[in-house]
Batch of 2 targets.
Target 1
Amino acid sequence: MSFGPIAIHNGQRIQRIRPPKELEGLLEASLFLRGPVMDRAGGDPETAWQELGGPAAGIPLIAPIQVHGTAILEEAELWTLPSRPKADGILLSKGKCAGSLRFADCFPLLLASCHPRPWALMLHAGFEGTAKGILSCAVDFLRSRTPGFRPDRMAAWIGPGIGPCCYERKKNQDAKTALGMTNLPRSCWTDLGDRVRFDIREAIRIQLLTVGLPEERIFTHGLCTSCNPHLLYSYRNGDRTCRTFFVVRSGPAVHNIHPWWENI
């Protein structure tokens, strides 16, 4: 139960998440990293999905416009392409639609459980969203939608994102920096004088522990997007449009269809 090895298919890097035993056949999650398919898509989810053969496999895709907020969608064909509502999270539990989010320094975050029924919640957890409390909003959303929800039965995967080695913000006259210094754990930022260094990955990990997730059920990718330009897209490293494409399906109907990338 972790991140699988990076596979390469016709030059395109793909990394799958290994689900816990109780979610095998009920959860599929894949990261499409730097590669020719994502380069051609240029950050457009509809193009990426066409290139990957998602429509040919008969899988509708939810691909919200991400706004660094805390809004979460629930799986429904109403939200699938070409519709693109604004949101930064997707709750998946039916297995009929795939959810997708795009990343180039922000962190892909996946929560999943089979209690009280199989579900997965994918989040766009960057600096701003994490500081605004997208994780606590996600837990509140799960409580409201999932009677009997128990955070201690969840597993969480923190995907690749920008590390503290490469993420600093100007300190003065920046409302977002002030928000981070106010809302993120004190151990997750360092005052450098006129700049502040942030450890977003660690902030997410601490927030997961705070909502009740056991340490042993948190899995961290570990790679910094800015330090690994050969593998990952990074906005701060110059990638203005291309994005890592995170695709998740969860629920009882998942096993009915297996697109090619779920078999590599």
Target 2
Amino acid sequence: MHKNPTLLVLAAGMATRYGSLKQLDGFGPNGETIIEYSVHDAVKAGFGKVVFVVREEILADFTAAMQGRLPDSVEVDYVAQELDMLPAGYKVPAGRTKPWGTGHAVWVASAKINEPFAVINADDFYGYASFKLAADFLKSSSDDSESGLVGFELANTLSEHGSVSRGICAFDEAQTLLSLTELTKIVRTDSGDILVQDEEVQHTHLDGKEVVSMNLMAFKPTVFPYFEKYLKEFLSRNQHELKAEFYLPTVVNEMIAAGETSVKVMQTPEKWFGVTYPEDKATAIQRIDDLIKGNSYPKNLQSLTGPEDIETTAHKAQDIQEIVSHFAIQGHTAGGTPYGSGHIHDTYYIKNLQADCPDYLLQRINHQVFKNVPLLMENIEQVTAHLRSKLENIPGAEPDKEVLTLVPTRHQASYYQDEAGNFWRLYLLLQGTRSYDLVESPQQAYEGGKAFGRFQALLADMDASLLHESIPDFHNVEHRLRQFTQAIKHNQKDRVKHVQPEIDFVMQRAQLMSTICRLGREGKLPLRITHNDTKFNNVLLDSQDKAQCVIDLDTVMPGYVAYDYGDAIRTTAATAAEDEKDLSKIDIDLNLFRGFTQGFLEETCASLTDEEIGSLSLGITLLPFIMGLRFLTDYIDGDHYYKIHFPEHNLQRAQAQFRLVEVLEDKLELLQGIIEEISAACHQATTKQTK
């Protein structure tokens, strides 16, 4: 079940037939644009965020025009669509000036969208019922391969002032789309007949009841790799074409033909109108006036304001104590002190004043990073319950020490939301444990490998479909590269000129680093339940440096085993911290590498495929590359995601991670040999045990 989908507004059109920027033209009594009515309807229907795709040359004017004209309750973001925004390895044909089309616009927006979303044209009026159909579909559809299309009756979509192009929907009795056929030059004659005057299908009659697409489509974020796939195919076929366009309906048709999506057609009763020609403006103004008189809209949309933005503030001791009081704790506590070195959440150590009662860890969850806290906490509840049930059946295991224990609220919820909108959770503190940012011995590395390997093995029989994606595309390097490209394009803090060597480093490796994504799409690597943040400091060790508990479960979700292995090597076998300033100190400790790999494969080799074991070496370089890419992207964007301790901290982190990539690349053949050696020995030992 999804909540708060995003509305993607395609506003980069050239408006050649209209003669001016129709996206910003006023049609309401107070100069309201069609966009404002669409956003009003979308928010009312249940959308929580709006992303605009706009041409670079109008971006400043567009953002200025929208300033203060959209509901306060909706998050707004912008993406610039430019000709040179293409997948790695592709270039703009010499002499091309024409935009790439609506399919390209959707692909460009992927850097800003991690949730289910609907697509609309900026200059088309769809009506509330249409947005409600899309929102309800996105909230209720649990199949990530299912898409939706809101269809209009053809007769309700024609212009009286010239021809239009429409995508005719063919669908079966179950309302499943079979194909979209683009017809151009559709006109309504003076006698009321509807004709297609395209040269190849001259004078074809239509009855007006055909269901057509007006680009109001609903997708899950899992479609973005397919958009990129078909964009690449389009670019390869049209290397020298100056006018060919990559259309949204083309992508949908390709995905349907390949069995990559099924599209549910939802027919709306609304009457569409838009502004293709200058003469359409008077009609649009009249239609909006009629809707206002019919009480569909207020005379002034700006009179409707949303709730105030949630402010996050530092919490005093009395605030912490008040928050803790909402949880079902034992004993008595007084305030809290900051704890740990995590980048994402605010964590506090809660000391119990009653000696025979436990201490606690309180966390304020960063809901800017984890957009859906209820689903995040549902994941953690399910994973900890499954781990506990497995350990309870293993002789000698200690579930209370080996699994995190969530303390429920007094109303038996897994989290508490305060009046300011902040989300809080409480864990039992595991006494006598410690963690290390840097590993100090091969034995510690071995224990870390066993901890993460055992964690994955214990979850091997848990249904992965039960888990939600707490951060969609978390380790998807193709998605991270798209975000990186957007950050460079926007250059919000004018920092790009200072990081050109780092940008070059990324672009030189972009295609190679996408290998795991490609193997996954091809079905050669299975999805498993993985931790996805296997830094060594996410393993708690006991006083004897034996692994006790895997922590930081926010990113536990389906993933590839190479992700867990690669990120663990990044923090286990590296000879310096992830933000080391002196790059000469960064190397790979082969003893630590061998120790971790030994522990990890002892726990997992029996369940991994040969392809997965082969992919581990890919993960070794991929994960520090991704982390460096994320740090660099955040630096270019202005340091919004990660906490920093000094102005250049994110850049320093990125440089350290990229140096680690170089070291690993130099030693990759040696590291592959160690993996193969240990894997063979583990398989041999497992075979002996089963005889």
